[in-house]
Amino acid sequence: MTNRAAIITLSICGIVLGLTLWVCAWEEKARRRAEAYCQDHQMVLVDTAGGERCAPLWALERTTR
Asked: What CA–CA distance (Å, rounded) separates 7 from 36?
């Protein structure tokens, strides 16, 4: 492998890693924002088959009994 090929390969890997980290940070920020919204409305964030959503506390208590 030539130096040029190695540089291109490392550059591509760096871009992919950077994008992956950016997406993870963006998802974490969105999750924190959703949790704060739920707490402001006295709800909890729950995972469902369709994704995460806010649910009232009484609904969560009913399913855990």
From this structure: 43
Residue 31 pLDDT greater than 80, yes or no: yes
The Cα-based distances of 53 to 17, 39, 41, 48 in angstroms read 29, 12, 12, 7
* Angle, vertex CA 35, rays to CA 29 and CA 41, nearest 5: 140
Quickly count: other Cβ atoms within 10 Å of residue 5's Cβ.
9
Residue 62 has pLDDT above 80, yes or no: no
- C-alpha angle 11-14-19 in degrees, rounded to nearest 5: 130
Alpha-carbon span 27 to 6, nearest angstrom: 32
